[in-house]
Structure formats: C-alpha cells, structure tokens
Amino acid sequence: MDVIKIIAEYTENEEQAITRDMQFKAIPNWDSLTHVQIISELEDIFHISIPIEKIGSINTVGELMETVERFS
C-alpha cells in the first residue's frame, strides 16, 4: 500500500493532490487525530513501530515516506 494513497483516503483528497514535499498542515482535512490514525495504519500495514518521539517530528509527506522506509 502506498503512503500517499493512505493519506488521500484518510483525508478524503485525491491522490494527485498530495505530493512528497507537502506539509501536513497544507493538506485539507488534516488534523492531529488524522496524523495519529495514519501513523497507526502505516505501522499495521508495514508491520513497523515508529518511536513516539519520532512521530512529532514528521511534518511532510516525504518525511513520513522516509520514516516508513527506515523502519521497514
């Protein structure tokens, strides 16, 4: 499953509207609850565990993608 696809589903946006360099706050319908839900979903899908102290420092789609890769 693709990280951008998951973000698009949770925020009810088109995949094409979301780019790697987007800050989360620029994504329509993004809030702190969405942030946590998406992280949790990615951990389940990719069978990873992202440290809590790392979660707060992820601010862009690209950083999230790199974090998923790093912990996979």
What does this structure look like?
This protein has 72 residues and is mainly alpha-helical. It has a single domain, classed as Non-ribosomal Peptide Synthetase Peptidyl Carrier Protein, Chain A, CATH 1.10.1200.10. Helix 1 packs antiparallel against helix 2. The mean pLDDT is 95.
Outline:
The chain is mainly alpha-helical.
Biggest sheet overview: none
* Structural category: mainly alpha
Mean pLDDT: 95
Q: Alpha-carbon distance between the termini?
A: 13 Å
| CATH first level | Mainly Alpha
CATH superfamily label: ACP-like
Highlighted features:
mainly alpha; 54% helix; Non-ribosomal Peptide Synthetase Peptidyl Carrier Protein, Chain A; 72 residues
List the helices and strands and how they pair.
Blueprint: H1 3-11, H2 32-46, H3 52-55, H4 61-71
Helix pairs in contact: 1-2
